[in-house]
Amino acid sequence: MSDGPENYAQEKLLELEALAERIAEHRAAGEIVGLCHGCFDILHLGHLRHFIAAREQCDRLVVTVTPDRFVGKGPDRPVFAAEHRAELIAGLAVVSYVGVNRWPSAVETLRLLKPSRYFKGREYDLRPEQVNPNFLLEAEAVREAGGEVAFTDGFVLSSSAAWSRVKSSV
Predict the structure, then answer these.
(1) CATH code for the domain in which residue 61 is found
(2) How do beta strands 148-152 and 33-38 pair?
């Protein structure tokens, strides 16, 4: 029995190099390792459904979080520090491991981790250049490492829109 709920999440939080080793072990064992990357500030139902849909298509689900200094969503963002966002995500049963990215985009992280599948929401498939210009480079990095890009459908919400509503009501 763990000492508390924080220990449950802590076991799933890994530095990127340790995460790369863990992913390599799972892939060597024939498992499909999926990866979701994003800011995830403020975590909402759309994120959870994205994680669940991704997990249904892989054996292990890894989530990497954008570091605070690269969250370009306005002066009041992120609301929660990367370490807090990562710990919250690690507390979700559907997620196997969580790491905090160190770079402005996920490109270097994807090259290091080499997931079997990189999951994004369907909006990235329909209009990738409008959603995030880094996505095309990220997709290329995944494919170069022998992985594939997959898209999840479903409930789309915006953390930025929710945060704007909260700020305007204060």
Answers:
(1) 3.40.50.620
(2) unpaired
